[in-house]
Automatic annotation (TrEMBL), chains A, B, C, D:
PROSITE patterns: HTH_TETR_2. Residues 32-51 bind DNA. Keywords: DNA-binding, Transcription, Transcription regulation. It holds the Pfam family TetR_C_11. Residues 9-69 form the HTH tetR-type domain. GO terms for molecular function: DNA-binding transcription factor activity; transcription cis-regulatory region binding. It comes from Kutzneria kofuensis. Gene3D superfamilies: Homeodomain-like, Tetracycline Repressor, domain 2. InterPro entries: Homeodomain-like_sf (IPR009057), HTH-type_TetR-like_transc_reg (IPR050109), HTH_TetR (IPR001647), Tet_transcr_reg_TetR-rel_C_sf (IPR036271), TetR_C (IPR011075). This is AcrR family transcriptional regulator. The keyword Repeat does not apply. SUPFAM superfamilies: Homeodomain-like, Tetracyclin repressor-like, C-terminal domain. It comes from the Bacteria.
DNA sequence: CGTTAAGCGAGACGGTACGTCTTGTCTTCGT
DNA sequence: ACGAAGACAAGACGTACCGTCTCGCTTAACG
């Protein structure tokens, strides 16, 4: 990987802008390295110099638009924080270009382990981490998954709608699970 | 779509077998229509005559191997059924070829709506439907999502391990949510 | 190399025509496999299926135009035949598109041994062979080189003009050499 | 073109040496401006400052190695001089790195008129000029071509071997042609 | 003696061509 | 008539090279 300091920031931005424009105009299928290069007025080599493939470029273009995402100006408590997060997710990623792109990135990551790792590092974890800090007792990752998983699951499979009501009920379930850890069933069939 | 009755069942099977073999040998990237045709000793035309694209072929090959999946010989109750299902999922789809393929199919479906619909119809719904029947009160789809979503979410993102313990705790959370619907928080901030 | 009989002759011809057209419009630098494919309305793959590279395509396009070359309806004798050939060369290849292409092909052959072999087989040898048969005494290849070499040498280096007069004098020299083999110098300094 | 006096002679030499080394190691295909720059430990800019392109660099590297070429310590006569030249050519340029490079330079010149002109000026003409002075009667350039053309022609086309015997016979033919100008045929068919 | 203009190493950049790959359609055979 | 074989158009892939350019550093000439 070449020296980052020699990178031309205008070119960098032009590539991300071009990628986003292609996404807006033609969706994921319109994104190819050739197309990005043409749209950005850039040589393909320049793209491959800084990114391993188009997935990485698309991820960065996505993150640049999504970075402003996490809300939570004044977190009063876990419940409020989770609810805000869940509703925020619904607002930003359900039925939006950003949401479609998120779906497609997660999809592409199933065949691109590097993209998967980058998504975890730059997308999932930055959103989980501040919330994890609020969960002092119980399995924080379980609770977070109980919130995030249903939202993403429906986003990816589309088997049922996603709205604020669903977000709220998912958060309720997660909170219940935290406060009431596994008394509901016998220990007998534990594996 | 041509006359189903004229279809040569041996050719049909050879294509599915070849697809599976390619999957086993080289993973999803090794699967191309050309490769399937060569492996099966079949013309590409024959494949396109019966399937719209390679995703559909792979889905069918997957379903053929996965069909035996649903357990539950004698369902004693919702809790048992959910737990059995969740653990079954862990056994069959975590760290296995089948699980990788499931990931890749869901991934491919993000850009192939037909594949998404087929997955819902032939994979997700057949597994949800018998369980849904057991959930008499509350939002059945919510409860099912609380079980299935975390499992699939971790399968797709790989951000945390999936084992029987995780499966059990997910089921506990879902059961809790069913029996204790949203009393835990005020109605005030409902949207 | 695939089965020749399955080749689509229209596609074959379209590729040669496109190549020639590019040559006429933009000269050798305008010829690229991409450009040929675009001009012919053909996939690049189709070109690479039948030719190893653009040199081979250009050679075939050249040969198709040059095939009609060898004259000599009624060869009366070696002298007449050589003179006709030499003048014919001047007429067809000096200052013409065909001549420029011949130069460029010979030039390209310096880095493409396959092209060199193809040129020898399909261009040089077919022109030498009928003349060689007329040279019954002496070293036929030497005589032929004494005719052809100066013409090609000037074509390639451009250090002096090529006209009918030059062609005639070259032929004279070659005929002299044949009829008067090496009496002109002592055997002493033979190596 | 910048000020020659400020040129760093070590850099100049390093570039020529690097070019030659690349030629020796990988042949003409290994020579690229990038490769020369890397091999010489020099910026590409420095190369383009002093040469128009890689052909010019290669030509200079060639000339530096070939400069010692012309023999002829004590020219006793035209016949001796021509014979010495022709045999010298065989010794130095047939089956040698230098000969291959000469072929490739002449080849490249077919698409690079500047290289062609430079070759004529710095390679061909310096070798022809001293010999031309010895040819007092007849067409000197014709005689010289009758010697040089067959040697280069076989070098470029490879259709027949080049050895001392061939060199001698070519010289004989040229001498014959000089002493016996065109009496051998009628003036009738002159054009 | 300092400043200033160039040479220079390094390498990013736009552009173009390469040769390979895959997709989905279409054609040619043989059975 | 079906199926194998595979040609075909389209176009993306990732690499190579070209020739221009922009950085800093050093180095010589000139003020």
């Amino acid at each position: 990987m070449p020296d980052q300091s020699r990178r031309n920031p205008q070119v960098h931005q032009a590539i991300l802008d071009a990628t986003w424009q292609l996404l807006v105009d033609g969706g994921w299928p319109a994104v190819s390295v050739d197309a990005i290069a043409a749209q950005a007025g850039v040589g393909k080599r320049t793209i491959y110099r800084w990114w391993p493939n188009k997935n990485a470029v698309a991820l960065e273009a996505f993150l640049a638009r999504a970075r402003s995402t996490p809300p939570l100006g004044n977190p009063v408590g876990l419940a409020e924080a989770l609810r805000a997060h869940a509703r925020h997710f619904v607002d930003l990623y359900v039925g939006t270009r950003l949401g479609t792109l998120l779906r497609e990135l997660i999809g592409a990551a199933q065949q691109d382990p590097e993209l998967g790792a980058a998504l975890r590092e730059h997308w999932f974890e930055p959103r989980r981490e501040p919330l994890r800090a609020l969960i002092t007792d119980g399995d924080a990752d379980l609770v977070l998954d109980l919130v995030f998983a249903p939202l993403h699951y429906r986003l990816l499979t589309g088997h049922a709608p996603i709205d604020h009501s669903f977000a709220d009920r998912v958060v309720d379930a997660a909170l219940l699970a935290r406060s009431n850890p596994r008394e509901s069933r016998s220990q007998a069939d534990r594996m």
